[in-house]
UniProtKB/TrEMBL annotation:
<dbReference type="InterPro" id="IPR008000">
    <property type="entry name" value="Rham/fucose_mutarotase"/>
</dbReference>
<dbReference type="Pfam" id="PF05336">
    <property type="entry name" value="rhaM"/>
</dbReference>
<dbReference type="GO" id="GO:0016857">
    <property type="term" value="F:racemase and epimerase activity, acting on carbohydrates and derivatives"/>
</dbReference>
<dbReference type="InterPro" id="IPR011008">
    <property type="entry name" value="Dimeric_a/b-barrel"/>
</dbReference>
<protein>
    <submittedName>
        <fullName>L-rhamnose mutarotase</fullName>
    </submittedName>
</protein>
Length: 105
């Protein structure tokens, strides 16, 4: 199992919309996340930043993320959530992976 922490910025004027969207994700989106070997997934809001945590239990993260990106329901979901976000990385990058510096079970 691999733990991931990710970060992205959110547009101030889109915070409530983003929260509302996540109260009722589109059909199939959560199922695809699980099908792509992601578990224990959470998103936190701190000011204008979103922090995500999840655990990956698969064998090929890149292949699973490509599978998710091909999913029609996920693509529709991203079309409504992406405009709420501002990447902190290079053009075209979304969530940026963070380095884990400490963990205690």
């Amino acid at each position: 199992m691999q733990r991931y922490g990710q970060i992205i910025k959110i547009k101030k004027e889109k915070i409530q919309e983003y929260k509302d969207l996540h109260k009722n994700p589109y059909k199939g989106v959560c199922e695809m996340i699980k099908e792509c070997n992601i578990q224990n997934y959470s998103i936190y809001l701190f000011g204008e930043y979103l922090f995500a945590y999840f655990e990956y239990i698969g064998a090929d993260f890149e292949a699973d993320m490509a599978k998710m990106a091909r999913d029609e329901n996920t693509q529709k979901w991203w079309k409504v959530t992406d405009p709420c976000q501002i990447s902190l990385g290079y053009a075209g990058q979304k969530w940026l992976n963070m380095e884990e510096v400490f963990h205690l079970d």
